[in-house]
Specification:
The chain is of the alpha+beta class. The protein is built from seven helices and 19 strands. The strands form four sheets. A six-stranded mixed sheet has the order 10-11-12-9-3-13. The chain has a six-stranded antiparallel β-barrel with strand order 14-17-16-15-18-19. Strands 5-6-7-4-8 form a five-stranded antiparallel sheet.
């Protein structure tokens, strides 16, 4: 267990490899109740969301979720988040645990039209049940038709005997599955019911370490590693969630970046020499000159090879480019590859 954002978080229960493979091949449960949840309500809720987020939330319909980010005023990212449209005047924002206070203050500073804001983070339990067996096992606990739910949608209903649970299909592992939100008083019941339902299928609790290896195989960014206050969404390959059909924080500068190009880019790479890349390791060219740094790295349990993400000068960002990772002062050869690392 490690302290994280005011919680004690499980890094691993049984071991990273076992837990990783459980999610890729079966069913695993992450207790991610440390995440932040805000409700935004009122006539001007959408307008506020449009002004503070990079994506275009006007295209959302009831039951639809959107991945987005909160750009800051200097070109970086306050946080990445999910926007759930409950109805035309009610939205749920799901933010990173370590940024709850920062995000709340940031959004509130733009709330000049009386949008009702409620921080329900401390009242909300969130389990992410991930893996190819998740749908069939969870279906036994609810009348919600899980098979009809497409990626990035949600439904509300009775789940595990709990009224008004919110079930979504957003996933951070690439293995399929669902997230269940409910009030804290139902947390024990939810956990026990899910584990009872999955017992015969080898359901296991999964820790933070396997969550990291799973998301990295999919090339998903982790706030604080791959994106932060100093990385722009354009540099981070998040132009697809940065829509210039509207005006938002720093949109003019980001639009210029998109048109003119950026000096560095977030890339995925595979190690060719033996060695595991880690956060903050130096990335060099063939002559040993610094061209960037590693933001995330691991030995991929599925691919059986070392993979990583990092920022490099744009000239070295094309797939197939040869780069070198400094591991204990030794330059190890790697190659830039297209993400996700794990192809469907």
């Amino acid at each position: 267990m490690v302290p994280f954002a005011g919680f004690n978080m499980p890094v691993q229960y049984e071991g990273v490899i076992v837990e990783h493979e459980t999610v890729r091949n079966g069913i695993g449960v992450f207790d991610v109740s440390h995440m932040g949840e805000f409700i935004l309500k009122g006539e001007h809720a959408l307008d506020l969301i449009q002004r503070v987020t990079s994506n275009d939330a006007s295209v959302l319909f009831d039951g639809k979720v959107q991945y987005s980010c909160l750009p800051n005023s200097t070109g970086g990212i306050v946080d990445d988040l999910l926007v759930y449209r409950i109805d035309g005047k009610t939205y749920l924002l799901v933010v990173n645990a370590s940024n709850i206070e920062k995000d709340w203050n940031w959004i509130a500073s733009f709330n000049n039209n009386g949008v009702e804001m409620e921080n329900i983070s401390d009242k909300t339990t969130l389990l992410a049940v991930q893996g190819p067996k998740a749908a069939s096992i969870l279906q036994t606990l609810t009348d919600i038709d899980l098979s009809s739910m497409s990626y990035y949608t949600f439904k509300k209903g009775k789940f595990a005997g709990i009224d008004n649970a919110l079930v979504s299909a957003t996933g951070y592992t690439g293995a399929g599955g669902f997230e269940i939100y409910c009030k804290n008083e139902h947390a024990d019941k939810l956990w026990k019911t899910v584990f009872d339902a999955g017992k015969e299928s080898g359901i296991k609790p999964i820790g933070l370490a396997a969550r990291d290896t799973l998301r990295l195989e999919m090339g998903f960014c982790l706030y604080g590693n791959d994106i932060d206050d100093a990385t722009s969404p354009i540099e981070a390959g998040l132009a697809w969630i940065t829509k210039f059909t509207k005006t938002f924080t720093n949109s003019e500068r980001l639009h210029r970046q998109k048109l003119e190009g950026v000096h560095r880019k977030l890339i995925g790479f595979e190690m060719l020499d033996r060695g595991i890349p880690r956060h903050d390791y130096e990335i060099c060219d063939a002559a040993g000159k610094n061209i960037g740094k590693v933001t995330s790295g691991t030995q991929s349990p599925t691919l059986k090879k070392a993979i990583g993400m990092g920022y490099v000068k744009t000239a070295f960002s094309s797939p197939g480019s040869e780069i070198y990772i400094k591991v204990r002062d030794k330059a190890l050869k790697a190659m830039v590859v297209k993400m996700p690392f794990l192809k469907k």
